Structure formats: C-alpha cells, structure tokens
C-alpha cells in the first residue's frame, strides 16, 4: 500500500507521495493513480523527497506520465501539507524549474493561503504558424516551465475560429515547441484584473494553474501595460500576482486545501 495526500489549489488537484516510495515507478504511478474514473484521480503527482540535510525536493509527473519542471499550484499544495504535517510556516522547495520559497499567510486547516516566490519571468513576443489556422500572435513566457500566452477578446476565450480547448491542444503539442508547452488564453478585464483559461501540457484543460497565473500576468504586464499587481482569475478561482519590475522575482498568492489522506494499492 502506498500512503498519499490529495490536495488542490483552485481545483487544480495533486497527489503528494514520498519519493522513497516511488521505486522508480514515477510515470507508471502517475498514469495509474491520476486516472479519474478508475483510481484516486488528479492532474499530477508531486513526489516529495526529504533530504538528509533537511532540504526538500519535488518531482512533478503529469497525469499522462510525463515529467514537468514544476507546478506553482502543486508546490503550494505541498507547502500546505508540510505546514500541517511538519509545522512548516516557511519552506524552500527545490524543483527542476528552480527553488521555490513558500510562506503560509493564513492557516485554517484544511485550507491555507500561501505566498510563493516564483522566480523571474521571461517574456518574448512571438507569432507562430499553425496548420489550418495560420499566424497566431502571442508570447513565449518562461516561469521555470514553458508557456505560450494568447490575448483574446471573446467571452468564451475562443481564438482564430477555434474553441480554446481545441486550439490549446494543437499549440501544446506543436513541433514548434520541442518539449511541448502550456497554453493560456488571456482576457484583460481592467488595469488590475485578467481572466484566463489553461491548456496544460501533459494534462489538458485545468481549472487553475499557478505558473499559468504567473505567465498570463507577466505577459499582460510586459505587453499590455497593466498594473504590476494583478488579480488573475481562472475557472477555479482567483490568485494574486505581484511583479515590481522585469528584473524582480514574481510573487504569487493563492489558496491550497488538503482534501484527504489515504493509502492505495498500486502494484
């Protein structure tokens, strides 16, 4: 039996499993345990390694078994679990996308409000060409993992005559991106608020994304001149982003909630 924790951040849900239990079956466990109809169900698994010196490191595997650099929401879910299980109010979590430091702003177990340092976003305007679609202007944004951000005016977030889910799938898997990309469709609502939808690499449409909130905000700040403090609203709820200038670390504040603790046979 494998012990697990299930948590979510604005509906973007993750399992947390100790790295020592993975036995090099990370991808297999992700595909099996994240299945919605036949197992626990989640968007991905955060494998938590506890190092001998007291440091922590996370490996994120998506529901399809692919490994990603990091997840902002997943990292926050782990920080919430460590606040409950280990009493950690401040924690630094290593990831393949860089170190992420989390601070518990409010705690009302099982719900936690957490501020995370998300690194320095890099925004590069780019127009891509897609078969049967044509030129698609947007921006490549790196926040420790890759994103392609499109700005839209439509209330349903459709673009170029396609539903955002359909276009997101095409862009995410395009050979233009060697390792795939996350895709965000962003509407600027005001100088202080954006709304967006996410097609997540290795998972598909999700209700929320921490790095997606950061990428969408960074693109809007850099290319649309909005405020450097934003409310970023996805289907699962709002998160707060702060990016004082292009050379500064972006901070992300949002909720994380422990759903359950259990164990499952995965052999």
Structure description:
- With 267 residues, this protein is an alpha+beta fold.
- The protein folds into two domains: 2-115 and 255-264, Diaminopimelate Epimerase, Chain A, domain 1 (Roll); 122-248, Diaminopimelate Epimerase, Chain A, domain 1 (Roll), CATH 3.10.310.
- The chain contains four helices and 17 strands.
- The chain has an eight-stranded mixed β-barrel with strand order 1-2-3-4-6-7-8-17.
- Helix 3 (164-172) links the parallel strand 11 (146-151) and strand 12 (182-190).
- The chain is globular and about 50 Å long.
- The chain starts with a strand and ends with a strand.
- The model has no long low-confidence stretch (mean pLDDT 97).
What are the SSEs and their pairings?
Layout: E1 2-9, E2 12-18, H1 26-33, E3 44-50, E4 56-62, E5 67-68, H2 72-86, E6 90-94, E7 100-108, E8 111-117, E9 122-130, E10 134-142, E11 146-151, H3 164-172, E12 182-190, E13 193-200, E14 204-206, H4 210-224, E15 229-234, E16 237-242, E17 251-264
Parallel strand pairs: 2-3, 4-6, 11-12, 13-15
Antiparallel strand pairs: 1-2, 1-17, 3-4, 4-5, 6-7, 7-8, 8-17, 9-10, 10-11, 12-13, 13-14, 15-16, 16-17
Briefly say what this structure is.
The chain is built from four helices and 17 strands. The chain is of the alpha+beta class. Strands 1-2-3-4-6-7-8-17 form an eight-stranded mixed barrel.
């Amino acid at each position: 039996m494998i012990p697990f924790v299930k948590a979510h951040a604005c509906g973007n849900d993750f399992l947390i499993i100790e790295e020592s239990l993975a036995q090099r079956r990370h991808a297999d466990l992700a595909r099996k345990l994240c299945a919605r109809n036949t197992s626990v169900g989640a968007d991905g698994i955060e494998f938590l390694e506890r190092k001998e010196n007291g440091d922590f490191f996370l490996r994120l595997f998506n529901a399809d078994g692919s490994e990603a650099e990091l997840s902002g929401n997943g990292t926050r879910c782990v920080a919430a679990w460590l606040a409950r299980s280990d009493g950690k109010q401040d924690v630094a979590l290593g990831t393949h996308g860089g170190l992420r430091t989390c601070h518990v702003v409010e705690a009302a177990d099982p719900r936690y409000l957490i501020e995370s340092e998300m690194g320095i976003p890099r925004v590069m305007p780019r127009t891509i060409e897609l078969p049967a679609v044509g030129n698609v202007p947007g921006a490549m944004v790196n926040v420790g993992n890759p994103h392609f951000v499109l700005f839209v005016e439509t209330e349903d977030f459709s673009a170029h005559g396609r539903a955002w889910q359909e276009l997101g799938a095409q862009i995410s898997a395009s050979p233009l991106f060697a390792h795939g990309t996350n895709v965000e469709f962003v509407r600027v609502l005001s100088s202080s608020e954006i709304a967006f939808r996410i097609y997540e690499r290795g998972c598909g449409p999700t209700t929320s994304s921490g790095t997606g909130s950061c990428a969408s905000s960074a693109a809007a700040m850099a290319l649309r001149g909005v405020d450097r403090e934003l409310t970023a609203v996805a289907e699962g709820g709002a998160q707060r982003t702060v990016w004082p200038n292009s050379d500064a670390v972006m901070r992300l504040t949002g909720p994380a909630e422990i759903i359950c603790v259990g164990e499952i046979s995965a052999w």
